[in-house]
Amino acid sequence: MEGDYTMEQKMLYVGIDWADDHHDIVITDDSAKTLDQFRIDHTCDGFALLHSHIANHQTSSSLVLIAIETSRGLLVHELLQKGYTVYAINPKAVNRYKDRHVLSKAKSDVLDALSLGHLLRTDRHLFRPLEPLPEDYRLLDRLCGDLRKAIDEKSRIINQVISCSKEFYPKALEMFSLNSQIFIDFLNAFPDHDALSACKKKTLLAFLRKHRYSYPDKAEELWKTIQSPSLQPDKITARSGRLRLGMLLGQLENLKKHITHYEREIQHILDHLPESTPVKSLPGVGERLAPELVAILGPNSKDGHHRFQAAAEIAKLSGCVPVVRESGKWRTVSLRYACVKPFRRTFRDWAFTSISRSRWARAFYDYHKQRNQNHSTILRNLGKKWIKILFALWSQGTTYDEMVHIQNLKAKKVPWAMAL
Fold first, then answer.
1. What is the DSSP string of 116-165?
2. What b/e sequence results for 309-318 when a residue is b if at least 16 CB atoms lie within 10 Å of its CB, and e otherwise?
3. Residues 6+ apart with CB under 8 A from 61
4. Other beta carbons within 10 Å of 118
5. 250-267: string of b/e by CB count within 10 Å (b at 16+)?
């Protein structure tokens, strides 16, 4: 009876050094003794073995704390489903902690797992356990990240189309906007110089009407471009280039369809989230950045878990706040490289687009640009200011008012806002 009571009250610390096909595990407790050490496969049987080893030392899942160097994946999902408290620890923090115990810089999977377990035992107050957001917010976050990757891939393919066309078909680049559907359809209809040379004026006009070209007055200018002389490639370059161009256009068309589908799914989720209203009211956000900002913030439920407690947390994670190092009379300020890169990209993009849509943002940028500040530095500082506004609106559930903010800036006698 006494042994069962001791097991029920004992806090268990589990360190997991994960890999693709196996995971090394070390179990310890407040006595700092290694209670168990083993390896499991990344299979259902391996996960069952992990649970059985933990149950040998602690049957209450609420008293089991697990440290692992990732926040997503099948293993993390399994641990959360079992009711364990899971901490996602940055690998750099684990390395720094390990230096306290192993000065020789020795490295092994078991040693990493041991360090993770002891890190929770001594310093878990410095870390926050994983608390998954509601499904809609998690799905929105994943879809926004995947959409970003798809758009980056689209830009990469467009650059390849440009490079390929320059080798054997440069005239095509002079016809339409490179990011438009009519540009893709034009290349499919006239894939090389020979096809374009055989094009008649009525064929071009019919093509423009079919695609509802937005600038019909430019039809004559396009026809003159087609009729103008152009450099001719050799037969080998032209034949291989045509095949490669067709391949790239197929990839581009398929990717654009998937991007459109992603955008519809994201918009559908966003329309049902209450936090979207204050976010959409902000200048420069638009349809692309609004879902990313909502996914970053998470739900603002009065009685639930909040992802962030203050705007300063978001500013640090997004790299908008510099790192200050000082000792005695020595002091240096540097860029915060250790940050969440998607966050940094979102707030940088927002800061840049807000310059043309917000009077005070433009005044802020111009004021500091005249004082020879770096473009990226200004955007980071502007992003930090937008983060404060975003967090305030999200917390209060109110919409943005440009004039109210400008009046607040003038009341504080901010130099760059006095002329607004």
1. HHHHHHHHGGGS----PPPHHHHHHHHHHHHHHHHHHHHHHHHHHHHHHH
2. eebeebbbbb
3. 82, 83, 84
4. 21
5. ebbeebbeebeebbeebe
Q: What is the mean pLDDT of each run of 10 residues along the chain (420 residues)?
A: 55 95 95 94 96 93 95 94 95 89 83 94 93 92 96 96 93 89 92 89 90 84 88 90 94 95 96 94 94 94 82 95 92 91 96 96 96 95 97 94 95 92
Which letter does DSSP use for residue 356 in this model? T
Compute how many other C-beta atoms are within 10 angstroms of the C-beta atom of residue 297. 22
Contacts of 96 (CB under 8 A, 6+ apart): none
The structure's pTM equals 0.87
C-alpha 420/C-alpha 413 separation (Å) is: 12
Residue identified by tokens 């908008």 is: 320
311 near 388, Cβ under 8 Å?
yes
CA pair distance 31, 324, nearest whole angstrom: 37
